[in-house]
Amino acid sequence: MIIGFVQTKGGTGKSTLAVNIAFSNAVARAFDSIALVELDPQGTLRNWWEEREEMGYDCSRVSFHHISSTQKEVFQEGIKAIAQHNQLMIMDIPGEGTGKLHTRFACAFCDIAVIPMRQSTNDESAFLTNLYPIIKDIVLAVPEKRGRFHVLPVFTHPRTSIDKCYAYFNEVLPPYVTCLKAVYPARSVYENFNRKGLNLNEYAAVVATNRKFRQQVEKAVKDVETIANRLIRIGREKNASAKGK
Ligand SMILES: Nc1ncnc2c1ncn2[C@@H]1O[C@H](COP(=O)(O)OP(=O)(O)OP(=O)(O)O)[C@@H](O)[C@H]1O
Ligand SMILES: [Mg+2]
After folding, report:
1. pTM for the predicted model, two decimal places
2. I need a surface site. Which of 44, 89, 112, 120 has the fewest CB within 10 A?
3. How does pLDDT run across 132-166, given as a tens digit for each residue?
């Protein structure tokens, strides 16, 4: 299964989500081999991975790959090779203003394209202008690719109801794009943990004795596990319906 976090707009949580879904317990239970692939030439995750290695954190459960090439054929071949050797591949796609090479490829190649989006009219109209035309082109060219594009509402208020968010997005989203029945709430915990090579679960262990931090991180872990479970379920449903055809 191939999951890509895709959003042309920057700073919507793609890299943070990619990392923590890759290291989630739900994913560890469901897949034997997991690859985390960063296509961002900036190498945010590569730096983070190097910190992990330096700190001696576990680098065996998930394999990490940074593909910095912006040459289409080069990065496509690299990604396809990694996909062949892993039951699950999670791709972190850069926010792209121009060209959108990686975005186009990811939208066409992923089984599930997760589009992290804020509930804001600015972000919705940026999506319609920048990302949606790519999705529409793909679906019109290859109709089987319908049903792979899922918006994940991000940075929601921690008390936002998933059902209300789901209803809202499904009302405003254009054809071929649906909303995931999950949200990614804004949590202050993200300001601290990911600069030290840690993933969320490891950070939870580090702050286990601090009651305030522990409560915050436990909520964040729960958010990520819920999203991971939802994605795994969608993947399984897709597999089952593909086999049934
Ligand atoms: N749930 C969250 N609550 C609050 N802040 C968050 C959350 N998730 C991520 N962040 C913070 O938001 C910022 C952007 O996150 P991230 O780098 O994952 O976004 P991105 O979409 O990968 O950005 P880019 O497009 O630049 O690659 C980071 O500072 C990160 O720590
Ligand atoms: Mg990023």
Report:
1. 0.96
2. 120
3. 999 999 999 999 999 999 999 999 999 999 999 99
